[in-house]
Each structure stands twice: as C-alpha cells, then as structure tokens.
Give the backbone structure.
Amino acid sequence: MENCIFCKIINGEIPSDKVYEDEHVYAFRDIEPQAPVHILIVPKDHVASVADISAENSHLAAKCLEAVGKIARIENLSGGYRVITNTGRDAGQTVFHLHFHLLGGAELPAMIVRGAG
Ligand code: 5GP
Ligand code: ZN
C-alpha cells in the first residue's frame, strides 16, 4: 500500500534491522525500543489493524502469531515476553499496518508500548 511505512520496510524501500522473514511474515527491530528486545512482527500483505482482520485475511494474523515463538527462541527469550497490538487511536496506534510488538529481555513494567503520540 502506498505511503505505508511498514510496506516500504517490507519491500526494502526503507532499511530495517530484520530478525525473521518467511513467506507471509516480516519481523524487525523497533526503531525506538521500549525493552531490551523489541521486535515488530508484521504480515507482508497490508492489513491496517486488528479491526480489519476478516475471514479472508485472518491467516495473515495467524502467521504472525506462529512466528512469535520462533522469534522468541531466536532471541533467547526463555524468561518470557509480552505481545502487544495497539488498535486505533485510543490505544495509541501510530502505524496503520497490523503489527505485533514482541517485548522481552528483562522483567517488563506493568504497562508499556503506548504509541509515541
Ligand atoms: P504503534 O504505536 O502503531 O503500536 O507502533 C508503531 C511502532 O513502530 C512504534 O513502536 C515505533 O517506534 C515503530 N516505528 C515507527 N517507524 C519506524 C521505522 O521506520 N522503523 C522501525 N524499525 N520502527 C518504526
Ligand atoms: Zn502497509
């Protein structure tokens, strides 16, 4: 999708620190990490948010969640981690391409990853 920053990251127009990729999923380090490990897991096909998941595209969200455990093992998050998806304005979603924040590498505070705004 035009002007979507994560679509541009996926197609290489904008550089990223990739940690994982498969047919459906791309994962890269957040530019403003809020934990020692902070990775964004996104579907390669554009879906705006959880609010836009449908019967037609829900496999893309499932593929992202399938990748979570794999990436956590790559990153040695054996102590656990948190997966967060901000949806819409009140949650502080700033990028409207579905993404799962994977946070770990330390004991996490009670509430983190509210969008920059
Ligand atoms: P949201 O606020 O929508 O839940 O999360 C968007 C996330 O994308 C934020 O944590 C922000 O730091 C991250 N982000 C925004 N632009 C870029 C970028 O160009 N590169 C990377 N790696 N992360 C980005
Ligand atoms: Zn996109």
